[in-house]
Design goal:
By secondary structure, the protein is of the alpha/beta class. It folds into two domains: 3-234, Spore Coat Polysaccharide Biosynthesis Protein SpsA, Chain A (Alpha-Beta Complex), CATH 3.90.550.10; 236-357, no CATH class. Helices cover 55% and strands 12% of the residues. It has helices spanning 16-25, 44-55, 72-85, 105-111, 134-151, 167-172, 185-195, 220-234, 236-264, 270-293, 301-329, 334-357, and strands at residues 3-9, 31-37, 61-65, 90-93, 116-121, 128-130, 163-166, 199-204, 206-208. Strand 2, helix 2 (44-55) and strand 3 (61-65) form a beta-alpha-beta unit. The longest helix has 29 residues, at 236-264.
C-alpha cells in the first residue's frame, strides 16, 4: 500500500534532517514523507530542500511550504489534501521532535487496514511517557479522561498524534468543516472515525519528550478544552438529551400540577394521585418525543407505543416505589420524595427511549 508520513514543522531545524535519516534507514517499501512547513523562521523548509537535493530522494521526500503558522490541525489538513490528491492509501501523522520514534512505523503499518485507524498509544499496557514532569503528565491524563467522558470515545489515548489513517476514512469526512485547528484536532479525528464506524486499534509506544527545540503546546490547553466542549455540544445525543429535558419538563409540569390538585383539592390518596398524574404526563411525553426528540419513523405506531407504555409502567413502578420508601420509611416530605423519584425515572426513561423505544 502506498503510504505517506506527514510531518508538520515550525522551527524544527535542529531535528528535521536527523528524523528524515532515521525514517529512511528503515527502508520501508512504498513509503514517502511530506514535510508541511509553516514558514519556519529558523530555515526548516530550506534544510528539507537541501536534504532532498543532497541525498537524491526527490521521489520519496516532499516539501509543502505554507505562508504562515495556522496551527497543527491546519497543517495536517493541508497534508491530507496533498495525500489524497496523490492517491496515497495510508497516511501517517507524527511529530518532528523525536517524541514519536520512527521505529514504531512498521508496527503501525502492520495493524493498518482499510477500515481501521491505528493509534500509537501512551496509555495502554506497554505504552508510557518519558521526560515529562508531574504537572504535564497530569494535564495529559486529565485531558484524555475529560475528552473520553464528554465525547464517549473508546480509545485510551485520545490526544495522541502518532496515527495511521486509511485514505477511506479521510475521504468519508468533510475536511473543510473540521472544528479544531490546534491540538484538539487529534480528538476530533478520533470522534469522526468512531462515529462513522471505523475500527480504532491502539498499539503501545514509548513517548519521549522532545530532545531539542521548544515545545509548541504552550497556550493550547484552554483552546483545546474549548474545542472539545464545542464538539460535545454538537453531538446528536446531546441535542436529543436537551429536547428530552424540555419534553420532560412539560411532562413534569403536567405531572406536578395534576398531583398537587388531586391531593390538595380533591383529597385523593397520594399514591393514587401519583398514578393518575404520571399516566397523563407519559402520554404527553410520548407524543412530543416521537414527533420531535427522536423523530421516529416507525410505521408500527402500536408496537412503538407498546414499548413506550411498558417502559413507562416500569418507570411508574420505580417512581411509586421510590416515593413509598422515602415517604413511609424515611419520613420524607412527599413533595421532596416526588422530586427525587422524578429525577431518577427521568434518566431511566431517556436511556430506554433512545436505545429501545425509538431506536432507528
Amino acid at each position: 500500500m502506498k503510504t505517506l508520513v506527514i510531518i508538520p514543522t515550525y522551527n524544527e531545524a535542529q531535528n528535521i534532517c536527523k528524523l528524515l535519516e532515521e525514517i529512511l534507514s528503515l527502508r520501508l517499501k512504498n513509503l514517502a514523507i511530506l514535510i508541511v512547513d509553516d514558514n519556519s523562521p529558523d530555515g526548516t523548509g530550506r534544510l528539507v530542500e537541501e536534504f532532498r537535493q543532497k541525498n537524491a530522494v526527490k521521489e520519496q521526500i516532499f516539501l509543502l511550504s505554507r505562508k504562515r503558522k495556522e496551527g497543527l490541525g491546519k497543517a495536517y489538513l493541508a497534508g491530507f489534501y496533498w495525500a489524497l490528491a496523490h492517491r496515497y492509501e495510508r497516511i501517517v501523522t507524527m511529530d518532528a521532535d523525536f517524541s514519536h520514534n520512527p521505529q514504531y512505523l512498521p508496527t503501525l503499518f502492520s495493524e493498518a487496514k482499510e477500515d481501521t485507524l491505528v493509534v500509537g498509544s501512551r496509555y495502554i499496557k506497554g505504552g508510557k511517557v518519558k521526560g515529562w514532569g508531574p504537572l504535564r503528565y497530569l494535564n495529559s491524563l486529565g485531558a484524555n479522561l475529560i475528552s473520553r467522558l464528554l465525547l464517549g470515545l473508546k480509545p485510551r489515548d485520545v490526544t495522541a498524534g502518532y496515527k495511521c489513517y486509511p485514505a477511506s476514512f479521510l475521504k468519508s469526512i468533510d475536511l473543510e468543516n473540521l472544528v479544531s485547528s490546534g491540538y484538539a484536532f487529534q480528538v476530533e479525528m478520533l470522534l469522526l472515525a468512531q462515529d462513522r464506524g471505523f475500527k480504532i486499534k491502539e498499539v503501545p509506544i514509548v513517548f519521549v519528550d522532545r530532545r531539542v527545540g521548544e515545545s509548541k503546546i504552550a497556550g493550547e490547553l484552554f483552546r483545546s478544552a474549548a474545542v472539545v466542549f464545542r464538539l460535545f455540544l454538537k453531538r446528536k445525543a446531546i441535542h436529543q438529551l436537551i429536547k428530552f429535558v424540555l419534553v420532560g419538563t412539560s411532562g413534569t409540569i403536567i405531572d406536578f400540577s395534576i398531583y398537587f390538585v388531586a391531593t390538595r383539592f380533591l383529597h385523593l390518596f397520594y399514591l393514587l394521585a401519583k398514578i393518575l398524574s404520571f399516566l397523563l404526563a407519559v402520554f404527553n411525553n410520548y407524543l412530543w418525543n416521537r414527533l420531535w426528540t427522536f423523530r421516529s419513523l416507525d410505521k408500527n405506531k402500536l408496537w412503538e407505543f407498546a414499548r413506550f407504555g411498558s417502559t413507562s409502567l416500569i418507570g411508574l413502578g420505580l417512581n411509586t416505589l421510590i416515593m413509598y420508601i422515602f415517604v413511609e420509611k424515611v419520613k420524607m416530605y412527599d413533595i421532596t420524595a416526588w422530586i427525587v423519584a422524578t429525577l431518577f425515572v427521568f434518566f431511566w426513561n431517556f436511556i430506554i427511549s433512545k436505545f429501545w423505544v425509538f431506536k432507528k
